[in-house]
């Protein structure tokens, strides 16, 4: 498994950029209409005149899955015509193709087929191997690929199959029941055999003795195996042997004579370079020895062999005494009895274990397709990062991302991996992450969260990790998918639980700092209605919490200059909830500020203002003019709401009490009480609504509020708002106001303050 995360020349961590060919594949995968059309049955059909050679077809399938596209029968139909398309190497993972789709692929006389997590393929399709397996050189049937196994655990009878793939060089089976009639003798080319988690039942490994080229035998999680050791010892050409197990519970992995058993294997399998005995007691109890106990090995050696006298050096693994001068290239000691991986004298160049960072990373690389074991390895890595002891960040990142990408459907893997990612991203090296790597981390997190939406632990880990990124800049490339996941966390998880709180916090952060198009999308997905539902729930229970406060803040953000979201608020009984919150929680300053900020956005929409023109609403807004809550914020927003309503003219004021004149008098009195230097808790992206009130010569009181708002913002935050006034033609509009005869002197005085402040800001920029 190659490492994709690189330490770049500038010291940053990143992934290699896409090649031109990969970019072309990405474009094609995102736009299948370039080469195909849709048939009436919804399946894809390759356009006439298009012929795709093997290199393109293989690469297309690989990259289609790489770019997170669901590979199903519709896409597979592109390869129905074997005269115009050609497939040789097919790797399927998390695919939903059916047996029909699989047959379409196998009709191409494949060279290699790999299937993992292809749940919809059933044992009823195993006949396809008999019909189309003659060309196969490599066959890999991983987890949840039920071609040779029953998906239901109550199915006890093994599938009666024969490996009618005579040219196989590599065979990987997972969880298959091996019946005693199964023949291997005809597989003369077979060199790599992986029987992970297979049930041998009445099957004897002696059947493998007829394989002249067998060099690799993987028997991970195959138990009991003690009665098969004699057959294994006869496979003299083996270079790689794996007899590890994932756990030592119920006596699994425990041998009666561990030292002698391991020595026997070493004496007979002299070409071994890779050995895995993880989870067993074959490494002994850790007592160093110079003696070679060869009773067991003598019994198995053929009469023609001559036992040479050996001078064994010290080793802490007695059964490997013969390899001290010729160490193994790899030795798996992960979770062995008596903590064998922590011993000093281990005759191997590379060790998989949990004694230190190097061993853990080695284990992660070697066990990349063993999800249960790999989850434990990632847990070890998590503890390393939690205590800031991991130094090889780029390798650690690579193994975690690879594990999560490969085993998307394995929930515990996603939980463990996301917890590890949190501490990696939280660490001091975060600033070194390049854009491609950062995108990969975020995409992998979203994939896991999307797959396991109902698991609160997965959502919690993902949300917490996302808080470590810069919002919204780092997530804009996956904005829509993230919003959907956050909305689920807000609406479908435990009320007032941590997951709900962190989700609504992230949602509000995203709503606050995005443009109008994305605010529209938020409304279309139901953000406003979701927030109103949360508020209704808390009103029903008379509960005030941070979720309610942030719910109002989120609606304040998504209604900013987005009229349709304002309408959604009104249509969702928003004003009713506003009044109830005001009555139920009268002393909550932050709540009041958020609600009035939202209503300020609603009041900016001319065609919605008639809905605010009721005696009850106007009396509430007028009363809030005198509020001292949160500095001037509540009073300021109440005045803004009333100013916009009044700007529609006397004829639009359809209530008798309070009168328009009385309300305007109170509004001016409130404005005159405010300190022009007051700091604000507000963010304007445009002054267009305020500048429209500056032009409201029919109602000077509205102009008063507007120029005061501009003066305050330019006085307190000149760097940001002076430039905004100038960009939106505000200086010309203010000069016109000063020249006009209608506005009273106080309005013109404040308007001059704005112009002077902007002129001073321009001078500062020139001097700078």
From TrEMBL:
InterPro entries: ARM-like, ARM-type_fold, Armadillo, LRR_dom_sf, LRR_Zer-1, ZER1-like_C, Zyg-11_UBL_adapter
Alphabetical list of PROSITE patterns matching this protein: ARM_REPEAT (PS50176)
Domain of life assignment: Eukaryota
Positions of the Protein zer-1 homolog-like C-terminal domain: 403-759
GO biological process: anatomical structure morphogenesis
Gene Ontology CC terms, in alphabetical order: Cul2-RING ubiquitin ligase complex
Keyword Repeat: yes
Domain Zer-1-like leucine-rich repeats region, residue spans: 184-336
Per-repeat ranges for ARM: 616-648
Keyword field: Leucine-rich repeat, Repeat, Ubl conjugation pathway
Family: Belongs to the zyg-11 family.
Name recorded for this polypeptide: Protein zer-1 homolog
Species: Drosophila kikkawai
Gene label: LOC108079112
